[in-house]
Amino acid sequence: MATVAEWVQGARPRTLPIAVSPVLVGTGAALGAGVVAPVRALLALLVAVALIVGVNYANDYSDGIRGTDDERVGPLRLVGAKLAAPAAVRTAALLSLSVAALAGLALVALSGQWWLVAVGAACIAGAWFYTGGRRPYGYAGLGEVAVFVFFGPVAVLGTVITQSGPPSPLAMVAAVGVGLLACAVLVANNLRDIPTDTDAGKRTLAVLLGDADTRRLYVALVVVPLLLSAGAAVRSWPMALGLLTAPLAVGPIRRVLRGAQGPQLIRVLAATVTTLLAWSVLTAVGLALGLVV
Question: What is each CA distance from 52 to 16, 128, 143, 187, in whole angstroms?
Fold first, then answer.
């Protein structure tokens, strides 16, 4: 029987910045457009957090019953470690996704953007079928694409649209940056898991690309958002604030290029999450100030 602490670990709280970051950026864009909507911002945050917790429990369940997590380096896996029954973890996943759905419906009702119901349904389906179902797309090298789309443009622009309406070009640029950094987190995770995923038959993008090309991809995913900050600053100088995260990115990039393996990549993973959150906070401030200065 898993303890409360183990259930919390199973939710992988260290991944929460991936959910928080796009909402911060989207809310910053709404503030820059002159709209203050705290209730909608909090609902968007609840949707994102519940969605990522649901994804994490769903992955724990699906990978666990397939045996993919039998020998895993990294965060605790409830099913893989036989700490909780698969059915219990599946229930936790479905409850979390249900919370995301209900919060999303409330947000749509407040904003009047009913077409976003279809987008929300796609997000929930994407969360489940990442590693669930007969043909999980996470096992076909498409996990990074989904993370980019759902935790980048969809989450950022959905937050903007439900608060202030059509997003600005700067918000779109920022959405791409968030998506790329969120994708970098997954790439670091999958780089670490190449040996075990290969043995388990899980064909992630890292497995398909191989070690060397995955490391190059990681560097590109971290560097491009900084270039986007520099480019956006030409139009609105507060967007240059995102460049202040460059020193945070140096360490993980250096470790990846020097061939960090296994547990060493856990540090890279944590540093990448920190870089994502810091870039998002600073970019949100830049967006909030951008149409004011």
Answer: 7, 11, 14, 17
Do the Cβ atoms of 187 and 146 come closer than 8 Å?
A: no
B/e letters for 259-284, b = 16+ CB within 10 Å, e = fewer, are: ebeeeebbebbebbbbbbbbbbbbbb
Render pLDDT for 78-132 as a digit per residue (tens, 0 to 9): 998 889 999 999 999 999 999 999 999 999 999 999 999 999 999 999 999 998 9
Q: Which residues pair with 140 in a beta bridge?
A: 203
Q: Cα–Cα distance between 160 and 114 in angstroms, integer?
A: 15
Under a CB-based contact definition with an 8 Å cutoff, are residues 272 and 252 in contact? yes
Write the CA distances from 145 to 12, 57, 180, 188, 217, integer angstroms.
Answer: 21, 20, 10, 14, 13
Q: Over the stretch 176-226, which tens digit does the pLDDT of each residue have? A: 999 999 999 999 999 998 988 888 788 999 999 999 999 999 999 999 999
DSSP the chain: ---HHHHHHHT-GGGHHHHHHHHHHHHHHHHHTT---HHHHHHHHHHHHHHHHHHHHHHHHHHHHHTTTTT--SS--TTTTTSS-HHHHHHHHHHHHHHHHHHHHHHHHHHT-TTHHHHHHHHHHHHHHTT-SSS-GGGBT-HHHHHHHIIIIIHHHHHHHHHHSSPPHHHHHHHHHHHHHHHHHHHHHHHHTHHHHHHHT-B-HHHHH-HHHHHHHHHHHHHHHHHHHHHHHHH-GGGGGGGGGHHHHHHHHHHHHTT--TTHHHHHHHHHHHHHHHHHHHHHHHHHHHTT-
- Whether the CB-CB separation of 123 and 51 falls below 8 Å is answered with yes
End-to-end CA distance of the chain: 56
